[in-house]
Amino acid sequence: MLFEVPAIHSPTCAAAITSALLAQDLGAAVEVKLSERRVRVEGNLSKDQALAAIRGAGFAAAEAPPHSGAGSTCCGGCA
What secondary structure letter does DSSP report for 7? Predict the structure, then answer.
């Protein structure tokens, strides 16, 4: 799952989000891309559970729209 989190701006923000997600699913793979302000989560959490964890850490979040089409660098892994 891929989420847009506009307020991510530092490693401290990334750590808070990662901790919140791992508290809900210790085995989750969490990748935070500060430059893109996106969070990728792979694991046992549902979309709603992941959003609740991110929001519970104090960050507004929304599911990122699929990105594809001409000129896209999408690998297809998030669709």
Answer: T
